[in-house]
Amino acid sequence: MLILLPPSESKRTGGAGKARLDLHSLRFPELRRAREVASMALAVLARDVSAEDAAKQLGIPPTLVHEVAANAALFDSPLMPAIDRYTGVLYDALDAASLPSEARRHLGRTVAVHSAVFGPVGALDRIPDYRMSATSRLPGIRLKQLWAPAVSAVLAVASGPVVDLRSESYVALGPVTGVRDDAAYVRVMTEGDDGVRRALNHFNKHAKGMLVRAFALDRPRIRSIAGFVDWARGAGFRMESAGDQEVRLLVD
Question: Can you name a GO cellular component term (predicted)?
Answer without folding.
Answer: cytosol
